[in-house]
Amino acid sequence: MQPQESGVQYSRWKESGQDEVSVVAVSNSEETSCCERVCWKLCTGKLGIIMKVVGGVAFFWAVFILGYVTGYFVHKCK
């Protein structure tokens, strides 16, 4: 059994005989830092999906350009 402050409760000895895990969200805004709030906002929901797609496309083009430049200098005729 974990303490209440962790936000996760594990209860094994219920009458139903099944293990139950419940996650409690921290609602106190004083406990969450500004960085955590920004990260939560950018990584979840529709905005999170958009950020992941934009990041993936940017990563693809960065690798593509790096490979193109590397291939140009490796295969350049002397």
Report on this model:
With 78 residues, this protein is mostly helical. It has one domain. It is 51% helix and 10% strand. It has two helices and two strands; from the N terminus they run ββαα. The chain has a two-stranded antiparallel ribbon with strand order 1-2. Strand 1 and strand 2 form a beta hairpin. The longest helix has 30 residues. The protein is elongated, with a radius of gyration of 24 Å. The termini are far apart. It comes from Trichechus manatus latirostris (Florida manatee). It holds the Pfam family DUF4731. This is Small integral membrane protein 1. Keywords: Membrane, Transmembrane, Transmembrane helix.
Secondary structure layout plus pairing:
Blueprint: E1 8-11, E2 20-23, H1 34-43, H2 45-74
Antiparallel strand pairs: 1-2
Could you write a compact summary of the structure shown?
It holds the Pfam family DUF4731. This protein has 78 residues and is mainly alpha-helical. 51% of the residues lie in helices and 10% in strands.
Notable traits:
transmembrane, two-stranded antiparallel ribbon, Small integral membrane protein 1, membrane, 10% strand, single chain, 2 strands, SMIM1, mainly alpha, 78 residues
Query: From N to C, what is the helix and strand string?
Result: EEHH
Low-pLDDT segments = none
Q: Give average pLDDT, whole number.
A: 78
Work out the radius of gyration: 24 Å
Give the tally of structural domains: 1
- Structure summary, number of beta strands: 2
The strand order across the widest sheet is 1-2
Helix content: 40-55%
Biggest sheet architecture: 2 strands, antiparallel
Structural class: mainly alpha
Tally of DSSP helical segments = 2
- The coarse overall form would be elongated
Distance between the termini: 70 Å
Strand content: 5-15%
Keywords: Membrane, Transmembrane, Transmembrane helix
Pfam family, one: DUF4731
Organism: Trichechus manatus latirostris (Florida manatee)
Protein name: Small integral membrane protein 1
